[in-house]
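>> received
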Amino acid sequence: MAYRKLDNRRKGDDQKPTTKIVHDSDKVVDRFVRIMQNAHRRIDVCVDNTRPLLAMDSFVDAKTRGVAIRYITEITRSNLRYCKELMSIVDELRHFGWY
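>> returned
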């Protein structure tokens, strides 16, 4: 998993956005949950069709704190049920597909 911290700098903050690569599925989920917990305004998530419910509790927690969530994934027959559940939580659910 790769993530990039963008536009989270405060006025006068010299910290530059970074990109970090995380390996091992447990570490990826742990890092993702921490990012969700630290978000204040907006979260953009883009995952493949095998991970539609990645850390669902973290999404619910972020929404109760007023964080806007945009979720981009490939919607397939096998994950349609989960995507419908996501629609009730996220602000925007987008489909991307391979043509």
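>> DSSP finds three helices and five strands in the chain.
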